[in-house]
Amino acid sequence: MYIKTAGLVLREVEINEADKLIDILTRDRGLVTAKARGVRRSRSPIKSACQLLAYSEFNLFEYREKLTVQEAEPIEQFRELRDELELFALGSYLAQTVSVVAQEDAPNPELVSLILNALYALAKLRKPQLLVKAAYELRLARLAGFEPELEACPVCGAQTPDRFDLSLGAAVCADCHPEGNAGIRMPITPTVLDAMRYICWCDGKKLFSFRLDEEQLKMLSSVTEAYLMTQLEHSFSTLDFYKSLLQYGEIL
After folding, report:
1. Closest CA to 109 of 22, 29, 202
2. Boundary (domain end) residue, out of 76, 91, 124
3. Residue 1's pLDDT is what?
4. Please, are residues 21 and 15 in contact by the beta-carbon 8 Å criterion?
5. What does the alpha-carbon distance between residue 181 and residue 232 come to, in Å, rounded to a whole number?
6. pLDDT tens per residue, range 132-163
């Protein structure tokens, strides 16, 4: 059976001198894995379409529940990301996180739109890296079923709580302690809380249309990163690599 679909390459694994397996996030089939034969050869006609972070149109052949790439044409390659190691590392982190959330045979168009819009914001709009990272992380957590409680402190009802409880997934006041909860709390300012509310509740097309100063953005990014790691119960090698690049840049 032949299948035509469009999707973003989230992962590539070399399996011999010429072939590799690729994980593709699609709107209509969820996450799929396909074998790309001969793709590692320099003259392969599907080489550019099957590389990491390429959004492409695929013609797949299914046989005995296994997929093989027959034809592939790139729709958007996000070349700008490949020109800067930091950007490519961040893009790889976004791909690795969404691959944990996405499921086979479970179409989730919102996931596809989220990561494509994030990559576009980095590559084309040149939005600040930490802004894109933070907005993506919190929105991904929400799409994964971990929408945080941000309207008010769940204990006292205050509208401007000053802590974020990672395990509870809620903004709380420093002096309030929900019964039976002893999770890690991170400080948040009113500005960061407003940004978190915006990220969770805004139209997806406007997700990256907000601004914060550098210090507030660092705080937001730390909170969203810690929250996503806590809820997914997962660490990411690509995030470690990205952060190592940032530290190296600061040293220079």
Report:
1. 29
2. 76
3. 83
4. yes
5. 19
6. 999 999 999 999 999 999 999 999 999 999 99
